[in-house]
Amino acid sequence: MTPVQDGQDGQGRQDGQGILDLQVDGVLGGDELNALFRAAWPGHRDTDFGPVLARSLLRVTARRAGRLVGYVNVVGDGGVHAFLLDTTVHPDERRAGLGTALVRAAADAARERGAHWLHVDYEPHLTAFHERCGFRPTAAGLMALNGDPADDTP
Q1: pTM, whole model, 2 decimals?
Q2: Element (H, E) at 62
């Protein structure tokens, strides 16, 4: 699976379930993103993704037969730092390398857009996944800006 230039069709991979396409900055609607998040994240409440997508440096999507099955968002600081957010893979597509492909495509595209560093926050059970993607652990801090930190997990 290889990402291609912005908005163009990705190179597909046949894996017995049909062709899987990756795209950098392809067309993406809030309804389909909410559907993916509902499937992947228990307790997800539909949200307006318009402001999120408007602030993205880039996003990578994965589709099978036109259906959104994977997504990752990258935001930037306008300089050399970029931040990986919301890596999401549909439950039917997990454990087949799609998450890794999304992250690697996002890293490549962020590098092409001038980022020197790609940051990510993750829960401890995702450490091995992120290390396989090329991340290394660092010390970082987190401040809850809305209420009790115990009430809101990043």
Answers
A1: 0.82
A2: strand 58-64
